[in-house]
Design brief:
The longest helix is centred in the N-terminal third of the chain and has 17 residues. By secondary structure, this protein is α/β, with parallel strands linked by helices. Strands 1, 2, 6, 7, 8, 9, 10 and 11 form an eight-stranded mixed beta sheet that branches. A three-stranded mixed beta sheet has the order 4-3-5, with no helix packed on it. It starts with 9 loop residues before the first strand and ends with a helix. The chain is 22% helix and 30% strand. The protein has three helices and eleven strands, in the order βαβββββαβββββα.
């Protein structure tokens, strides 16, 4: 007997300009509710925000080192403090995790695999580390840490929330943001390593290039 394969209809949305964070949160929540109700397709929303910090459910106030630099928003997603701003591709993922196996850990791993596959399109080796959320790249071109361990920089962040088994929030990849904007927080609570971007790594990559890579690798990982 042949097995029926579940088909998913994912709509890709791209916003030009900088989307205010409260507007994005409202739109995400509305779309996630519609997906849960069966009245809308799953969606990936690609956008950029004006400079801001978001606090996840595990954020520690001491990691907000410059609280007046940019607006700070309570994100209610998993994770700690994260920066969003121009030059960073945010991909909000409104996906039906209930119909995709109801395995939250596997879903997060798939998000990590998706980022790594997208970075590989530019010959960048993204890696995950136990105890460190997000995707990292080795920096042999930089001096090692004070304890002698190799330097690694974060290039992508992940933070999701589920409601009625539908995800929202998602991931961000640093394409060409102002990396000094990260100085107002301890990104994801990790002091021992820094942040980088595709352009910081010497790659002349555009936002459109990243969008193409994300769409291609999404199909490879999520179908």
């Amino acid at each position: 007997m042949s097995q029926k394969v579940r088909e998913f209809m994912v709509t890709w949305l791209t916003s030009n300009g900088l989307v205010p964070y409260p507007d994005a949160l409202s739109e995400m929540e509305s779309r996630a509710a519609a997906i849960a109700a069966g009245t809308a397709d799953e969606a990936i929303w690609l956008l950029e925000h004006p400079p801001l910090y978001t606090a996840g459910t595990s954020a520690r106030i001491e990691d907000l080192t410059d609280p007046t630099r940019f607006p700070v928003f309570e994100a209610r997603r998993g994770g700690q403090y994260t920066y969003h701003g121009p030059g960073q591709r945010v991909a909000y993922c409104m996906l039906d995790v209930g119909n995709r196996g109801r395995d939250v850990r596997r879903f997060v791993q798939d998000l990590e695999t998706w980022i790594i596959a997208a970075l590989a399109e530019f010959n960048v080796k993204g890696e995950i580390r136990t105890g460190r959320v997000g995707v990292w790249v080795a920096r042999p071109d930089k001096a090692p840490n004070a304890d002698g361990t190799p330097r690694e920089d974060k290039i992508a962040a992940i933070g999701i929330r589920l409601r009625k088994w539908v995800s929202f929030h998602g991931l961000s990849i640093n394409v060409e943001p102002d990396l000094s904007h990260f100085d107002g927080i301890v990104p994801c609570g990790i002091k021992e390593h820094g942040v980088t971007s595709l352009v910081d790594l010497g790659l002349p990559v555009t936002m459109n290039d990243v969008d193409v890579a994300l769409q291609k690798s999404f199909r490879q990982v999520f179908g």
